[in-house]
Amino acid sequence: MAVFTAVGLGELTQWIKQFPLGNALALRGIASGIENSNFFLTTERGEYVLTIFENLGFDQLPFYLNLMNHLALRGIPVPAPVANDRGELVVPLQGKPAAIVSKLDGSSQMDPQPAHCAAVGAMLAKMHVAGSDFPMQQSNLRGLDWWNETTPAVLPYLDDADAHLLRAEMHFQQAFHGCAHYAALPRGPIHADLFRNNVMFVGEQLTGFFDFYFAGCDTWLFDVAVTVNDWCIDPDSGVIDRARARAMLDAYHAERPFTHDEQASWQPMLRAAALRFWLSRLYDFHLPREAEMLTPHDPTHFERILRERLATPAPELFHE
Ligand SMILES: Nc1ncnc2c1ncn2[C@@H]1O[C@H](COP(=O)(O)OP(=O)(O)O)[C@@H](O)[C@H]1O
Ligand SMILES: N[C@@H](CCOP(=O)(O)O)C(=O)O
Q1: Which of 42, 89, 239, 310 has its CA 20 to 30 A from that of 61?
Q2: Can you give the residue ranges of the Aminoglycoside phosphotransferase domain (predicted)?
């Protein structure tokens, strides 16, 4: 159950008055999710999602909420934050930061077909383009610096083979992040966690991207690699499903053509995206936060994906 902070409808009676939403009529805790306390909130104006942020602070949140606002204003289907009467998107509730955003229709597609992957690829490209004039800067907080900090913390828990893999991949990624192709990659705000559980569909119609709380400024190609590594694989082996990957990459390329530097960086970036989630899952598994309530995700899934990306050439990003 991902409601870490209990809130009752009665407590919202006064608090909700600062928003242009009328009275709060119903509040229902949302069971899924691992980071925050989420509630479906019915008001006189409609259906919303209330989030109480358990780990993110008032300093980081304006980036995420303003990015969602920027994208929503440009027609990207993301939850639109609701500002209070002082124009604030992040407001304290029970001493923690909280926000109200619009509720998306649909549900997650956990067994995606090429048509779903094409819809995600096209919307991801549109999102990158729409975000390119977003004025705020916040780096990807789960980028190379974080990998450098986290590697020594998890190494003592690994057997020799896994420790060797992690050290070798970190060396490779440090070199890749310093190379000329990498420096030339187009970049801007990225979602950075666009897994199947963070996208809504109604049938084959994509109705929204959400959960922007790992977003940051980084290469667009990293976002594509994270997305392919979750949407376009055989879940047991981590092997890329060529039909789904082709559908996603071609749809992306049609909206925002990939560059030659991106083509040259594709395989290393798929490895980087696997490494990022192997590391975070290792960290959550071996060093769980105090009061962690949910079973951590399985790190071996991304270790398998990383080994597979090392062993097998990925489909081309685009046909030259
Ligand atoms: N804007 C939204 N519209 C509709 N459902 C939402 C929205 N935001 C969150 N949800 C629902 O809440 C669940 C948990 O949200 P999520 O952002 O993944 O939580 P966490 O950040 O804690 O992992 C999602 O799986 C989804 O069902
Ligand atoms: N997608 C990450 C974990 C982040 O969880 P989310 O529910 O906030 O998307 C993973 O699978 O390791």
Answers
A1: 42
A2: 27-257
Residues lining ligand 2, judged by CB closer than 6 Å? 33-35, 193, 195, 197-198, 211, 277, 280-281, 297
Task: Give the global pTM.
Answer: 0.96
Q: Please name which of 221, 232, 223 lies closest in space to residue 259, comparing C-alpha atoms.
A: 221
The residue to mutate among 214, 278, 282, 300, having the most atoms of ligand 2 within 8 angstroms of its beta carbon, is 214
ipTM value greater than 0.90: yes
127/191 Cα distance (integer angstroms)? 9
Gap between the Cα atoms of 50 and 314, Å rounded = 40
Verify whether ligand 1 is closer than 6 Å to residue 230 (CB atom).
no
The Cα–Cα gap between 285 and 301 comes to: 13
Query: pLDDT tens for residues 303-318?
Result: 999 999 999 999 999 9
Strand ranges for the chain from DSSP E: 24-29, 37-43, 46-52, 91-93, 96-102, 187-190, 199-202, 205-209, 216-219
List, in order of start, the domains of the chain with CATH numbers: 9-102 (3.30.200.20), 114-311 (3.90.1200.10)
Radius of gyration of the chain (CA): 20
Instruction: Output phi, psi for 138, to 5 deg.
Output: -150, 125
SS (H, E, C) 112-173: CCHHHHHHHHHHHHHHHHHHCCCCCCCECCCCHHHHHHHHHHHHHHCCHHHHHHHHHHHHHH
Q: Which atom of ligand 1 is nearest to the CA of 197?
A: 25
The 10s digit of each residue's pLDDT in 142-176 is 999 999 999 999 999 999 999 999 999 999 999 99
Query: Three-state DSSP class for 233?
Result: strand
Query: Taking a C-beta distance cutoff of 8 angstroms, is the pair 256, 129 a contact?
Result: yes
